[in-house]
TrEMBL record, chain A:
Recorded GO MF terms: transmembrane transporter activity
One record GO biological process: amino acid transport
Protein name per the record: Branched-chain amino acid ABC transporter permease
Source organism per UniProt: Aquitalea aquatica
Keywords, alphabetical: Amino-acid transport, Cell membrane, Membrane, Transmembrane, Transmembrane helix, Transport
From TrEMBL, chain B:
Name recorded for this polypeptide: ABC transporter permease
Coiled coil start-end: none
Keyword Coiled coil recorded: no
Record Gene3D superfamilies: 3.40.50.2300
Pfam entry (one): Peripla_BP_6
Homology family: Belongs to the leucine-binding protein family.
Protein's organism: Aquitalea palustris
Residue ranges of every copy of the Leucine-binding protein domain listed in the record: 39-401
PANTHER family, per the entry: BLR6548 PROTEIN
Amino acid sequence: MSFFMEVLLGGLLAGVMYSLVAIGFVLIYKASGVFNFAQGSMVLFAALTFVSLLERGLPFWLAFVLSLLSMLLLALLLERLVLRHLVNRPPITLFMATLGLSYVVEGVAQALWGAQVHGLDLGIEDTPLELGGLMLSRFDLFAAGSAGLLVLLLSLLFNKTRIGLSLRAVADDQLAALAVGIRLQRMWVLVWAVAGLVGLVAGLLWGARLGVQFSLSLIVLKALPVLIIGGFTSIGGAIVGGLIVGASEKLAEVYLGPLLSGGIENWFPYVLALLFLLLRPAGLFGERAIERV
Amino acid sequence: MKNHLHTLKGAVVLALGLAAASATAQAGGEQYFPLQSYRVGPYAAGGTGFFGGFIDYLQYVNIKEGGVNGVKLTWSECETEYVVEKGVECYERLKKGLNGAPAAATNPLSVGIAYATLERSTADKLPLITINHGRTDSTDGSVFPYVFPLQLNPYSEVSAIINYIGQKSGGLAKLKGKKIAVLYHGSPYGKETNPILELLSKKYGFQLVSLEVPHPGNEQQSQWLTIRQQKPDWVILRGWGVMNPVALKTAQKTGYPADHIIGNIWSNSEEDAAPAGAAAKGFISITTHPSGSQFPVLQGIKKTVLDAGKGNLADPKRFGTVYYNLGVVNGILNVEAVRLAQAKFGKKPLTGEQVRWGFEHLHFDDKRLKEVGALGLLQPLQLSCADHEGGGAVRFQQWDGQQWKVISPWVQADRKLLRPIIEDSSHKYAKEKGITPRDCSKES
């Protein structure tokens, strides 16, 4: 039983890490209806910038602030060079644009900072922690706490500030938001910058786990089933979706894996996601599309 | 006027002819290495190190010796990003040589690209070098005349690891009753040695626990919890890329000691251990070539190439790292093959077919290793028509938190045990493809 609990808790904590990436998608989708395939590349860009600055002798917080500024600059460039020219285009056009962007951002990140693999030590010891006879990871607990704090801050931003109100208005109806004087371009820059901040936090936590390297951009593959299950428009949904994906993939790998010759945890969450698409297409917390016919 | 025109035309034709002849003569004096390199993408760290070392060695031979017996070495790169289709495209683009300089061999450093270009290489009579990797049965040169898994094939790799564990346990007989887990990358590369490990487990009586990690391997919680539950005496890590540091970090998280994890040949670089930080301290891996820059050949490269500002590495701190040194070793083997082939076919640029002869006659003993400044860097090895691996030995190294330290002498694979298995597989391939194996006893 304790082994089962360890697998389950380990999976839930891993799921929080997936949620961190998924939140970046949700933010942009909520505000602009764009499924930003470049989120993984943004995570890579942010982490690579941070660790490269750190290795050049900058103190932690200065490297963090400069990395954040680089994400803001990236957001400005994306809005000015790409998004502005694609207003009112079909969603598939915007999606394809972000697909292209993901390759551009990856290429620019490697051209700027090189292809070398970097270690990243956040100063959190990752030795096992015994709690009630269960062995848990200190680092994963820290990551879960960071994700919780981030969700809290984002909820405050969305629900308690004028900016949040404007963002929600843009998400509801872009034309109506424009009509009441909300500056759409500014909101887009803002939301892409916030997604950049989420990318930076995710990049640091994932980078400390994997090393800062190209594979960071592949973590989007873990976020996709999370989004389908939790819904594309809910930050809470991203958290719940992450927990479901994390726990189910670990339990499936340990208990079903040996029956299916192992290595199933990559595709098992997609089986769950497909089931959700069939039974609840908007996900657990997503907004159902209501259309006048 | 007409005469003047004729004279002018004649002068132009003569000048063009001389220029062409001079270009041909210059190109005719060069031996070309087509490089299917990867400097961007997920595996760029390995690619930049390996191809950096390879190019620096070619450069070193050109500067120090004026090429091989006066034949300058030349090369050009084609970016594959480690993608098989791009690798094949690069192969087709580069195989014909460069400005008349014939191609010596291809060195893609990619299992996927090697598999995809294997038959083309044979048809084009251009050696395909898969140093430390590739198809195990291509060791049998009677069936695979143009493929060379130099130094170490995958079967030898696991056999040597089991022999080392046997040594640490007090003899191979002591393996009986032990439990060994293998954590392998979920790809044909990762799975290739599973049948051999099963065979060895039956032979020596140890229990084998096989666990697959799906690509790319950035999440391994469930595998390491299973390892913790199974309590193996040793874990063999057959990883690649991000899978390696994640394995070490997750091992620490679940309380498994790093000094009982043995990494294979693609889990043995600084890029595999350093990102795991303190979790990697004590981690053991195999190597065919130690890292470090103390070897005379590396000192020569430093003085002649790097200090002259002609080095290929973007980051000079990577000089002497595992991937860089593998590139240098690969360069030594390629250049030696050209040198040997020149001794037979003449001191001129050679065809791929002629260079293949050179590879099949590679022979490095301690004397020759000392002459090329690579004693201790490269294992003694001898190739033949039947044996395209040549070495089959590894040393073991341990990560001290900052760098690798060699902790064992050469440990040999059980090549006698493996040879019939390799031949079974190669003969099956020959039958499938309608190949009549060469009679190696008649080859000179």
